[in-house]
Automatic annotation (TrEMBL):
Pathways involved: Amino-acid biosynthesis
Lineage start: Bacteria, Bacillati, Actinomycetota, Actinomycetes, Kitasatosporales
UniProt-recorded name of the protein: Glutamate synthase subunit beta
Residues in 4Fe-4S ferredoxin-type domain copies: 38-69
Organism whose genome encodes this protein: Streptomyces anandii
Pfam families (UniProt xref): Fer4_20, Pyr_redox_2
Gene3D superfamilies: Alpha-helical ferredoxin, FAD/NAD(P)-binding domain
PANTHER family: GLUTAMATE SYNTHASE [NADPH] SMALL CHAIN
Amino acid sequence: MADPKGFLNHGREVARSRPVEERVKDWNEVYVPGSLLPIISKQASRCMDCGIPFCHNGCPLGNLIPEWNDYAYREDWAAASERLHATNNFPEFTGRLCPAPCESACVLGINQPPVTIKNVEVSIIDKAWETGDVAPRIPERLSGKTVAVIGSGPAGLAAAQQLTRAGHTVAVYERADRIGGLLRYGIPEFKMEKRHINRRIEQMRAEGTRFRTGVEIGRDIKATDLKKRYDAVVIAAGATTARDLPVPGRELKGIHQAMEYLPLANKVQEGDYVTAPISAEGKHVVVIGGGDTGADCVGTAHRQGAASVTQLEIMPRPGEERNPVSQPWPTFPMLYKVTSAHEEGGERVYAVSTTHFEGDEDGNVQWLHMSEVEFVDGKLTAKPGTERKIPAQLVTLAMGFTGTDRENGLVEQFGLELDERGNIARDADFQTNVPGVFVAGDAGRGQSLIVWAIAEGRAVAAAVDRHLSGGSTRLPAPIGPYDRPMTA
């Protein structure tokens, strides 16, 4: 193990953030470059090398966390990178974006602040890129089998990389103009700079994966034609149907889904626009939805120069400490979280519901009307006499997603069955009702975390490889399609 007394000698330290007044003026990642490496060895030494490391169960990838903590403590970066990549294709993504259910399951976290697993992870992979320890893994021989992957988010990319390395010829189809899915256009640059995606794409190209951008299956290519071209198809198109807010005034100009707003800001960073077509500059901004996507809208509005930013959440404010009865260790608790975007300003309002919008004579939204809500007989109910309105010249809806896209024809043309939640139904081998067509990630699971998407991508690759080879595979399958996070 690392230092047997590490957790006794060292407290938890995390990456330092750049000053708010500095970082809101640019779109670079919020953390101080290079601030982790001087402290990461001590932080890795806090890992207790538990007899039963529950962090393995908290992480659906089954990351070998005590092992690479030990290597990081000893500053054996090459060995740490090898162990990290043994279970995770893209640790630079999860190390920056995952909410770290592994840390919630850390045994040390029972009575102390848990090990900074995310910070150790991102330090290892950044060091690996710096030292050249990340290289293409070209297959020794080709199988002669072909696979189409629909969607280039984390699930699609993980599946494509695993299948390419198994010797299959893989083509990834992405309807956007660049590879990456929501990693590219849904995650703001200040949370993850897109250079991290770009160099992974180049690695995958070198391994043999082919990419087709600007091609939407169902519209540009019929799903039935795609199936005829390939021996297997993996649908990893995400759950992109956004939940709407059907209240009076929803039709007013200036009210947008978060995924209409966020990609445009990212396209400015890609050089496609000088200024975003939908901008918060000088406007009173209201973000409806208290999750991570809502926080992304908050941080984006700050950088665009909003006059004010208010984030609304219909549920009561979560507690700041784990409830040992309803959310016991090692489950992933729902806690009050202050993200980097919240540190930058704005107001957060809990337990409120939007009743209607009010506009001006030109049809532009100007006010948002809301009331407080409370639970009555298990249902959220408006509290009489609490109605009020706040200025709102730009409103973003960040209330989650309800299922995969049904409008492009993909589901209908394949003849896919859906489950009761609007996701594409699948069996225990990730296969849909159509033989040879598999589904992974949010398209099958529903809206979830990036770490679950990568785990599904790896698992569906094993299922496809087994299907193509006639019953055997050497690819790992960390989870099954019906696995869910630990709950009480």
